[in-house]
Each structure stands twice: as structure tokens, then as C-alpha cells.
Amino acid sequence: MKVSMKVNGAERSGDVEPRVLLVDFLRTNLRQTGTHIGCDTTSCGACTVLLDGEPVKSCTLLTVQVDGRSITTVEGLAGGATLSPVQAGFHEEHGLQCGFCTPGMMLVGTALLDRNPNPTEDEIRWAISGNICRCTGYMNIVKAIQHAAKAKAATPVGAAAGGE
Amino acid sequence: MATATHIHGRIGQSIKRQEDARFLRGKGNYLDDHELPNMLHMAILRSPHAHARINSIDTAAASAMPGVIAVVTGEVMAQHKLAWMPTLSGDTQAVLATDKVRFQGQEVAAVIAETLYQAEDARDTIQVDYDVLPAVISPDGAKSASAPLIRDEKQGQKDNHIYHWESGDQAATQAAMAKAHRVIRLHTFYPRCHPAPLETCGCIADVNGATGKATIYMTSQAPHAIRTVFALVTGLPEQNIRVVSPDIGGGFGNKVPVYPGYVVATAASLLIGRPVKWVEDRSENLISTGFARDFHMTGDLAVDEDGKMTALRVHLDSDNGAFFSDAQPSKFRAGLFHIVTGSYDIPAAHVTADGYYTNKAPGGVAYRCSFRVTEASYLIERLVTNAAIELGIDQAEFRKKNFIQPEQFPYTSATGWVYDSGDYPKAMDVALEKLGYDELRKDVEARRKKGEVTGIGIASFTEVVGAGHGADFDILGLRMFDSAELRVHPTGKALLRMGVKSQGQGHETTFAQIVTEELGIPATDIAVEEGDTDTAPYGLGTYASRSTPVAGAATAMVARKLREKARKIAAHLLEAAEEDLAWETGRFYVKGSPEKAKTIQEIAFAAYTNLPEGLEAGLEGVHYYDPPNMTYPFGTYAVVVDIDKGTGQVKVKRMVAVDDCGIRINPMIVEGQIHGGLTEGFGIAFMELITFDADGNCIGSNFMDYLIPTAWETPRFETGETVTPSPHHPLGAKGVGESATVGSPAAYVNAVIDALSPYGITNIDMPVGPDKVWAALRSKGVTE
């Protein structure tokens, strides 16, 4: 089946079997390998992408389901060489170790801050509770998202890089 | 000099990680991200039964499916003498089953096809005719007279017993037990769990038919050792094998062993002449690869009238699964479990261990632990808290009374370990102070009077990490040294290559900082490379918290070698005698004339451009470091819990962790390691479980059943530190990656047991779920 969608702002299309998972389309057909596969059961969130701005798990979506829609992956977060506030927060607060869950965590953090610019710790923990991290123990991920919230608050609207 | 202290990245500075840049942009290079030209994909057919005889395997339909290139069975592997492979514990393991399947999830056949979807489609058409046999799912079952013989293919194997192993002094221990004022017994089961790194295991085998060169990309924590094992197993010349470990998405011990999939993919690539990729899915990872723990332990602690511990007797039944393929130093049958006397000055100890085959997955690995230290630490710390409760002594007080004292180091334990350094009372004091222990204790007593169920748990663990010394610690004869190769380029920038392999620990930052400390080259000017056996020096890999104790030491030593050469060059440049030069981080200067100086960058340039007569060009070196002893990190963890009488739900209110890992190279990274370990410890204590039904079906085969803590369950941690350097490590560092997984499970469970102790409850096996707590309370008539 022919599909087309916007991925990180660019029009992409493909011809896929109806059963092909979105994560496989992104990784294999588009060679965007920043979206990872961790569990196959929608439990771990390593495959999280944003679908029209909302976090979804791309291991449980068929590629054909997103025909005509807009996807953001980790590759779309930075504005050129400039890290988005969430990416910078993860670096500054040591919010990543092995890096495997990091794309999903950062996308969830980005979506959270888009709808709630000043979340409480509990709101952040709830937002990322669909994503598993085996390395960090989450405290620094929470700090990373708080760091990003502060940075966004301190930056005039429209000046922040990426994150769309 | 003022400048030296400001060099970016010296030891003790929490510099940001150098490896972050690619991970933050989704440009990490994990195994599954690799795509080689003409690459094929492999899917493995696994046994649905725990124990069954194979009558026949019909692959005809699969072979005819679209895109299928080959279907491999045990029979095919046997033609190449690869149906079985040796294990790291001196046993054999089936690569693809030929006679029987011995655990659910065992590898039976493999399909190689153009795409993964095609390989999986074809796999699902393979017909296997099985005769199902009774399954053995525990050591008790394995011992039973009616138990089926699992390893009937092994010459001379008459039952399901694998090994008997002892340590310590039986007679002295018995004598002390006989004289004891009290003997406190704890029987507890440390259940099977799984490291479950977020990235599963996998490989891409690429055997070049023209040159014979086999390049194997693999999620391996120990690529060099794997290369040698592959050479020995396959007979390929070792110079023709290149193992490349790319970025690894977490390991925690799961990525140490050699798995059947690696062997099949390599054989398939050799036979087909194209690269073959195999990546497990999550269920395959949980049901077939290296599990952890599964130890049934009984401890007897003898105490005299004054509350002093006089002897410890421990027996262990180990459930090793269908093949004895524990990843551990070859001389030890139950890993380093005999560190079980822990932080206490116990004059006599005796440990016995028996291993058993069962119809469960093989491959006991140390899930974030130095070869079974966490099981040992869990037993002694549980036993000590139970003893304190039974004797009516405060559990902190009881520990302090029995700690090995600071002046006793180096301390030889009753089972023969030589502890390098420690100050256990100090770590305990810092933890109690941070917790506000005395006040909290009063608060607990007051709340209990009101009928609340609340408690405090303490664990004062000691680890033994950083293997070797190579004379005692080897893997299949390979001494457990490690290595660092340092090249300082003419412009003063450097390349450091290591025999270890990061899985997220931040090696590209930490090891650069060691060079910064030793040579004064800023960390940002140093690239660290690991994992490619064609370029990195030989080493035994990253597990058992050995990277900093062993490879970190090698890094310091190679940098010091280069500094000595740099001194000769500096003397030439400054026209001074070598002995008249003094070193200050980043430069040599003439004693008494600090303005006459040459920086390390100037010296590096001269090493290629302006050398003294007779000196070899270049500023490069390699060091292989075989440590004189293990290191012994320690700490005290304290946990406060509230328990809901209506639901049995345990709420961790506080978690205070005071760690002493000696000198901290990058405190931010150390802290991150501790957070991670405390979380995995929390998971093990309360959530993570691989268990089996009576037929040997694995319960816990996906992330809906194998429960991993999310941000929502995970407690907030309060950390603290003391610093007792290792006297034998060149930097005084001890290693920290596993301390928190070793120390924390007992602290969490001790808090639950302390809370339940007023009702006479002395044990709940992990994971301490609400069902078990509620049932325990119910049995005492205290549920709401």
C-alpha cells in the first residue's frame, strides 16, 4: 500500500505491506534509526514518536494508520546544530546513560512541555511512566525536563530551537 | 600553579559526558542500527516445551517460503560439529537442539531470509514433533528420586546434580555453633530475575568468503574474550575474527555470555556468503538469555551473650537451568558467593553450595553484580536484621558492634578474602545522620502504637569487585587483567583505546578524565574508543564493576609511562637534567624556575619533531594491568516503609544511600550509577520475577508480566558518601556500578520485615508484592 506522511517536516512516502509496523517503516525504509525497539508490547516506550504532536508507541501502530499525518522523531528535535531545550536538559542533568530510552523520553518530555510549560515533579513522573529506563533511576530525567522547562520559560517565544 | 587546577576534566570534576552528543540526536550506533550490503535476517524457532524429546523437524514448507535462503536445524549444525558449544563454566550447551529440548525457549531451528518479516513467517511453518517429558523446575524437584534425568546425553551424568563446592572452616564453624548463646536461622529464596537491558541481544555476522575474515558485530560486554572463545569453538584462526561491540543499550551482565544465536548466525554467514543479522525480541531475551539469582539459601548466625557474632554457616542450592553456563571466573563454582560474611568480623564461617540442572533457561549471569555478590550480601544483611530483631537489639547498634573496624584493614575474612580498606562505622553514621534515625525510630514506635504498619530497614554491604588478580581470577584460563593504549598526537590531542566496553557507564568521559589527571590534556581533547578487537588492546571486558578498578588503573599506568618519556623530551627541550625537572599537571618545569616550562602539548609536538638523540619517536604506549587484589566498595543504605494493612501495598517513604567507592573520578557519573542501581534493586525487591508453572512454562516472558519500575513507582533517593581510597589502586578508586544493586534489595526487604516484626513475621521472599504482604498480615489476623 502506498503511504505518505510528514516526518520531521519533510514529505516521505513508501509502498508497504499493510502489516508493516510504523517503527519498522521508520527504521528500515527511512533509515531513521534513532527510534528504537525495546519490547514489542507497548510497554517500554523506546519506540515513542510524536504523531501530530502527541506521544505514541510506533511498535503498536501500522504504517498505514499514519498515512497523511505528521511524525516527529528524535532526529527532528534539534534545530540544526542547536539542541532543543529538552535535549540540552538531558545533557546538563545527566539524564541519559546508555541512551537507548533517551529518544522516547525526550519526545515525551517535549510533548509534555508543549501542553504544560511548568509541570510539577509528579506530572513529569506520570508523563514518562509509559517509558522504561534501566540506567538512570529517573531522578535525573525529571531534572532534565525541569531544566528544559526553566530554559523555555527564560527564552522569548519563538526563539527556542527545534522541539516542534 | 593556578592553571593546572582549571584544566577541564581532572579527577573530581563532574564534567558533562562526551558521549552524549550522538545519543541526544538519535545518532547512537546500536547493533540493530547497522545495515550491511546484501544483509540477510535470521529468526529462531524455539521450544514451546520445557522438556521434550524431538522426534522430527519438518522444514520443507519453510524452505519454500518467499525470500527464504536457508533453514538450519541441529542436524545441519552437527554436520559442522557446532550443534553443541562449550560454556564459560566448563559444561556444554546445545546451539540448536538435536535430541531433546531442555527448557522452554530453547533454540530448535533458524530461518535465514531476505527480510525479517519473511524469516518470521517461514519460521512459523516449521513442524516439530515432540514427545513431552516431565519438567523439573526447582533444585528440590531436581533432587527427587522420581526426577527425569535432564542431561541424559552427558557421559557419566546419573542425576541432576552439577557441583558441590565449599569454602571456610567446617570444624571451627561447628565448634562455634555448639558454644553459641543463640543461633539465628534464615531460609530465604532469592528468586530468578533478569537483567533485561532495554536493548536486547543480537549480532550481525559477516564472513568474507574470499578472505575468510569473519567480522561479527555483537552486543557484547566482553568482545575480546568472545573473539578467543569463537576461535576455540569454530577453529577459525583468531586473526581472521574481528568482533565489534557498537554502542550498547544497557548490559547489566546479560551481554557477557555467548548465545546460540551468535553461533548460528556466524555459521549461516559462512555457509551462505552474505551477512546475517539476528536480533532477539523481548520475549526471546527474557526466556532464553542469561538470567540472574535463583539461589535457595539457608544461613545460621551464631551470637554470644554480648551480641558478638561468632560464626556463620551457609548452605546454598543453586538452580542453574538446563546447562551450567554461568558467566563467572572459572575457578569458582558459585561465583564469589563466599564473600557472605560481609561487613562483619565473624571468626568462623563455612559455606556449602550445590548446583542443580533444571528445565529452565541456562546462563546465570551477575545482574549488575560481581559474580553472585548480591546474593551473598542479601543473605547476610537479611540475617543480621532478623538476628537483631530476635535478640531485641537495635539493628544499627548490632551492626556497629560487629563491624570489621577501620584499624583491622587489610582484613582477612573467614573464607579467605583480603579486604583492602574500609570504614564501615563512618558510612553507617553518615547514613543514620542523614536519615535522622533516632527520631525516626521513636516516630515508628509511636505510630505502631496507633496500629500503623511501618518500619526501617538497614543494609551495610561490602562488595568484592574488580577481578583479577589474574592468578586467582580467569575465564577459561584468560587472566582477568585489562588494558589501555594511549596515543598522544603531535598537536597534543590524544586517542585512548580500552579493553573494556561501556554499556552506558560513561567510559568516554571517565577514562578521558584519568588521562587529564595524569597528563594534563583537557578531557575534550581525548577520544576514547572501545569494542573493536582489531583496534583495541586485549581485555576481559566490562562487568563485575571492573572497568575503573582494572582498566582505569591501566589508563593511569599508561599515562604515567608516557609522562616518563615526556620528561626526557622536556629535559632535552629545556636543556636541563631530567632530575632537575618537576611535574605539575600539564607541564614540566625546571625546579626553582617555574617560568622555564614545557607544556604537555609542546612536548607531544617535540615527540614527533625534535627528539633527543637516541630516543624513539612518538608518544604512545599500552599497559596491561593485572590488579594485585580485588577492591571492596561498601556503604550503608537505609529505607523507611509504610504498609497499607488493607491492601498489603508497601510504600517506600525514604531511601538513604551512603556509598564509599574510594576516589570518585566523575562524581556526576558515579551518582548516576548509584541511582540506576538503587532502581534496579527496588525492582528486584518489589517487582521483577521470572517464575515457572509446574510444566516449566516461563511466567515473566514479556514486559507486561516482567515488571520493571517506572518513574511512577521508583522512590526518590537521598545519597551521601564517604571516601576510603583503595590502597592498591593507582588512583584509589574502587568501582561503583553495582554497589547499589548489591546493597539495596536487603535494605528494602529489611524495612518490610522490620515493619512486620511486631506480628512475628520474619521472612517474605522477593519480590515483595502486595499479595505476599497481605497474605502474611492475614495469617496474623491484622489485615483491615
Quickly list its features.
heterodimer; A: 164 residues; Ubiquitin-like (UB roll); DNA polymerase, domain 1; 2 domains; 5 helices; 32% helix; globular; disordered C terminus; B: alpha+beta; Aldehyde Oxidoreductase, domain 4; Aldehyde Oxidoreductase, domain 3; 3 domains; five-stranded mixed β-sheet; 34 strands
In terms of topology, how is this protein built?
The complex is a heterodimer of chains A (164) and B (784).
Chain A: E1 2-7, E2 10-15, H1 22-29, E3 48-51, E4 54-57, E5 70-72, H2 85-92, H3 102-115, H4 121-127, H5 139-154
Parallel strand pairs in A: 1-5
Antiparallel strand pairs in A: 1-2, 3-4, 3-5
Helix pairs in contact in A: 2-5, 3-5
Chain B: H1 20-24, E1 40-46, E2 52-58, H2 60-63, E3 68-73, H3 74-79, E4 84-86, E5 92-94, E6 100-101, E7 107-113, H4 116-123, E8 127-132, H5 139-143, E9 161-168, H6 170-179, E10 182-190, E11 202-207, E12 214-218, H7 223-234, E13 241-244, H8 260-272, E14 276-279, H9 282-288, E15 295-303, E16 309-319, E17 348-356, H10 373-391, H11 395-402, E18 411-412, E19 418-419, H12 424-435, H13 437-449, E20 453-462, E21 474-475, E22 478-479, E23 482-488, E24 494-498, H14 507-519, E25 526-530, H15 547-574, E26 581-584, E27 587-590, E28 593-599, H16 600-609, E29 620-625, E30 634-643, E31 650-660, H17 667-686, E32 691-692, E33 698-699, E34 718-721, H18 739-756, H19 770-779
Parallel strand pairs in B: 1-14, 12-13, 16-17, 24-25, 31-34
Antiparallel strand pairs in B: 1-7, 2-6, 2-8, 3-7, 4-5, 9-17, 10-15, 11-12, 11-14, 15-16, 18-19, 20-30, 21-22, 23-24, 23-29, 26-27, 27-28, 30-31, 32-33
Helix pairs in contact in B: 10-18, 14-15, 15-16, 17-18
> At the third CATH level, what is the topology name of the largest domain in chain B?
Aldehyde Oxidoreductase, domain 4
Q: Give the overall form of chain A.
A: globular
CATH C-level category of the largest domain in chain A: Alpha Beta
What would you say the CATH architecture of the largest domain in chain A is? Roll
| Main sheet properties of chain A | 5 strands, mixed
